[in-house]
Amino acid sequence: MATRKVVKVGEEILRKKSKEVKDFDESLWQLLDDMKETMHASDGMGLAAVQVGILRRAIVVEVNNAFIELINPVITAKKGEDIEQEGCLSVGNFRGRVKRPYQITVKAFDRFGYPFTLTGEKWLARCICHEIDHLNGILFIDNCLDKDIYLKQNRK
Ligand code: NI
Q1: Is 131 a catalytic residue?
Q2: Interval between CA 33 and ligand 1 midpoint (Å)
Q3: 57-112 pLDDT tens trace
């Protein structure tokens, strides 16, 4: 395992749409292992492959000490609403409130290509939504209720 460099806001790749994973092979496993190590090194709750410069639909999350890898994740159901502050390893120190579903159900594949379905609430739901947004080129600052503050702080 090795840590990889985290891509920061302003770099164009963060705005690109990631492609589906087709090969559940050793290079994917290496990527996932490195993403886990990179997330731990930065004390994050989640990481998308694009954040280490790989445009593939793979994310890792760790909420309440449960580490989960999701490949080609698709949200199939959403329930309720929840507002909390988020941050992002690609954005820096800014944290701001984002409205998310309180509960989601997501279909995905594990690293060996086996499909599974997961229902998560609160922070797990939030974290998965945040990472799936990354796969579609969306950053939390785009939909942040405190976007004005972010823009003010980052005005040049
Ligand atoms: Ni993020």
Answers
A1: yes
A2: 18
A3: 999 999 999 999 999 999 999 999 999 999 999 998 899 999 999 999 999 999 99
Cα of 113 vs centre of ligand 1, distance in Å, is: 24
Residue 43 CA to its chain's centroid (Å)? 14
Separation of 49 CA from ligand 1 center, angstroms?
Answer: 10
Hey, what are 145's tokens? Answer: 């209720």
Closest CA to 30 of 2, 6, 56, 5: 2
Residue 156, pLDDT score: 63
46 forms beta bridges with 61
Structure tokens, 137: 């080129």
pLDDT (tens digit per residue) in 121-140: 999 999 999 999 999 999 99
- In Å, how far from its chain's centre is CA 6? 12
Distance CA 55, CA 138 (A): 13
Catalytic residue among 20, 86, 121, 131: 131
119: phi then psi, degrees, rounded to nearest 5: -110, 130
CA 80 – CA 122 distance, rounded (Å): 10
